[in-house]
Design goal:
It is built from eight helices and seven strands. By secondary structure, the protein is α/β, with parallel strands linked by helices. The chain folds into two domains: 31 residues, no CATH class; 204 residues, Rossmann fold, CATH 3.40.50.150.
Length: 247
């Protein structure tokens, strides 16, 4: 039995005093200066109105890592921004949206709902780029099933979700902002649908990047971009999932 456990069981009153003293010492060693903290973020738009949002920087790192899959029939939510940026070889650009006025001169427009298979076209995509979408769908398990349904056999979904993040006012006020994920929760969701051997999960973020993101800082605000590169499992800003459909 460890010393700490012995102290707790044999001397509960003394242990409480030791803990109080320890906590007081820690507060003295690392004081909080409330003048340096603010209850108002620099940006209510996650830094997008200041420069490149920190979550977007991580999303692009994830897509850059997996750009070899971005080819053929490409599908993306709402527009083809990332498809066109990372595509190589001959590609066709399709979009998935529920906006009936959406137009896409480069390929199909699928007016559909990821949670409703009857609105989707099966096996339409070699690669489906689905960034920052699942957080805003309440029935997320059905949505993951919809992601797989849209893929051709052998096709790949490149998905990102938010971990530690502000609520998105734009989405919250329209269709809802429901979930924040960890690598463990998103892994379970995708393993159940795609199979354990057909997915790869990557985390992005650390304490500094999460604090900066919550305060509304953008990439350009940081004194050194390398501050974003270190990964800490306990401070997950963005989680990326590569999932392959194998029949």
């Amino acid at each position: 039995m460890r010393v700490k456990e012995i102290m707790r069981s044999e001397f509960p009153g003394m242990w409480k005093n030791v803990r109080l003293i320890r906590n007081a010492i820690n507060r003295i060693r690392k004081p909080v200066v409330f003048g340096e903290l603010s209850n108002h973020a620099l940006s209510e738009r996650m830094g997008l109105d200041r420069g490149q949002a920190i979550d977007r920087w991580y999303i692009e790192r994830f897509l850059e890592t997996h750009k070899k899959y971005v080819k053929g029939d490409l599908l993306e939510i709402a527009d083809s921004q990332y498809s066109k940026k990372y595509a190589h070889g001959e590609s066709r650009y399709h979009i998935l949206t529920f906006d009936k006025e959406a137009y896409n001169k480069d390929g199909k427009v699928i007016y559909g709902d990821l949670t409703d298979k009857s609105t989707l076209i099966p096996e339409v995509a070699d690669c489906f780029i689905c960034t920052q979408t699942l957080n805003f769908i309440f029935d997320v398990k059905k949505a993951v099933h919809g992601v797989r349904y849209l893929l051709k056999n052998g096709g790949v979904a490149l998905v990102t979700v938010a971990g530690i993040s502000q609520i998105s006012p734009f989405d919250y006020e329209r269709w809802g902002d429901f979930w924040r994920f960890t690598d463990q929760s998103i892994r379970r969701l995708f393993e159940d649908e795609f199979g354990k051997d057909n997915i790869k999960v990557q985390i992005y973020g650390n304490l500094v990047s999460c604090m900066a993101y919550l305060q509304g800082l953008c990439v350009e605000d940081l004194p050194d971009i390398r501050m974003l590169e270190k990964k800490n499992n306990y401070y997950q800003c963005i989680i990326g999932i590569m999932a392959r459909k194998i029949e």
